[in-house]
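Hi everyone, sorry if this is the wrong subforum. Our group has a chain we'd like a structural model of before ordering constructs, and none of us has done structure prediction before. Sequence below.
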Amino acid sequence: MFTSIADVRARLEAQRYVASDEIATVVFLAERLGKPVLAEGPAGVGKTELAKVWAAASGRELVRLQCYEGLDETKALYEWEYAKQLLYTQLLRDALGDVLAGATNLAEAADRLAAEENVFFSERFLLPRPLLRALTSEHPVVLLIDEIDRADAEFEAFLLEVLSDFQVSIPEIGTIRARHQPMVVLTSNNTRELSEALRRRCLYLHVDYPALEAELQIVALQVPDAPTRLARQVVELVQRLRGMDLKKQPSVAETVEWARALIELNARHLDRAALDATLGVLLKHTGDQQRARRMLPRTDDSDESAGRDDDESPRRRRDDDRTRRRRSE
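Answer:
Right subforum, don't worry. Here is the predicted structure as tokens:
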């Protein structure tokens, strides 16, 4: 367990995750209060990554449930291994014959068989899915319920028992309670409105695109080989792109991937050639790429001047000033 907010920040940073004061505070309180965390925000800002590094920093296993439309409790909670049940039935055919021996009619045979059904509907034939795995794990885990907004409202309602009491009800067995209360992170890209009942059970965390300096710190942690100048140029350009009307804003993960791609191409600074060669790493729609090229026409000029010696740009400015004075005379 984390000892303080500063401890949270330090241990997450050791996993190469830059946590803001708000993120560190919510994680600390979630551990102390035993509450799930609902992390909401744009795609690609580090919500899923938070659950991963939380598990790593606290020495817990990560159990992930990826949500999608049509997800139901049988896929999220458990399934019966019918093939295994059938195999056992065939292997125990002689034993079943002894159980049913002497039955005078079908109803009596059915009653005798029903008395034995607990053998076939027990945990030995239960195939646990992520929710049940998190509850029955021998050790504490971090349960990631990823993109809960993609699941149906009915599944969201089913989760309320898990998030409130950390238990589930299986009709054939009964109520199964958590051996160790998992730390739960639910993520949402806000594609639909979540219920107030779900929000009430969670600590709320809004994760947005980081400020320039914070994103620079992320790139420095994730891509330590990136030259300082290149890293700043990458982050500054990404921040400008996020201010444009794009179909898909570049995520923090794509910023990091772009910096890595430039390093692989041995780029020392960002010029037009490097931008054109690698823009597909950052922007995944043709229209976005075309819009970016139109609205960023001077990237090569500014970047080329940044890549020259420090005294070259002032000398060139002085020459330009002399030229302008001669023309005015």
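For your construct planning: The CA atoms of residues 121 and 172 lie 6 Å apart. The radius of gyration is 29 Å.
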